[in-house]
Amino acid sequence: MAAERAVRRIAPRAAAFLAIACWAFACAPAAAQNFLWQVSSPTNRVYLFGTIHAGKASWYPLPRAVDEAFGDSNELAVEADVTDDKAMAKSASSMAYAPPDSLRNHVPKDDYERFVKILPRYRLPEAEVARLKPFMAASLLVFAEWSRLGYSPQLGVDGYLIRRAKAELKPVVELEGVEQQFALMDALTDTENRDLFAGTLGALETGLADEQFEGMVHAWQVGDPNEMLEVARRYNEKVKGAAEFEEKFVWSRHPAMVAKIAAWLDGPDRRRFIAVGALHLCGPRGLVELLRARGYSVRQIFVAPPREK
Questions:
Q1: Stated pTM of the model
Q2: Cα(254)–Cα(246) distance, rounded to whole angstroms?
Q3: Beta strands in 52-199, from DSSP E residues, in sequence order
Q4: Which of 18, 108, 201, 220 is the most buried (most CB within 10 A)?
């Protein structure tokens, strides 16, 4: 059905859309750094790579330093396997209301009218999205805006890496999994859903969303996690519900992630390339600094010189 198709199309990345998993690779200055870190223990090492959930064909292949780290790894670890159609189909129904219920019954009338008014910008028929829950409806608009700006969710870096790993017969393991991410989305309260819905509409209507995207592009180009955090902070100050969303969908997930990564680091020499949304790697509550605090050796990897032609 239409609502389920819409959910399956965007849900793999929806958990991260306000986590600001930014994009832009190809224009990085030669002296910049990748959004890539090496974390080492006495017995092992992993690579932490900040992914982006929409992209452009021109971004591939990825920079040489990223390719080399990927090639040095025995496994790819991701938040969830977004190419697992079976797992996606199993959980997608939780993101839409069962008929005759619909989105309009769960958000203020004025906000629903704003939602319907903006749909033609993205050539989205109301019938296709009318049963989506507020979070999923907002996510659909965000990804539609990214597409309008030339960034395709189908070309996201996380999906690219998973497909590449499977083509190379490199095992893919999950830090969380599709079911756990859907459960997190479904755990949003009615108030959180309404706030996120209204806040996202406002960001799209005023151009704040595009302003945020441009700030993220620059932060990515210079490989600066502190600048990315600052862009996120400014957005959170202006968009109701964004800070609370970020807390639940980014920072609260880190203790479990760190525990799993630490177990890998303390285990036998089996190297993993760990690809997660870029904001997960930023700041004192990010995975990079949490692992450093545990005593592991951490370094950010500079952009490798251009490939010789």
A1: 0.86
A2: 12
A3: 75-78, 172-174
A4: 18
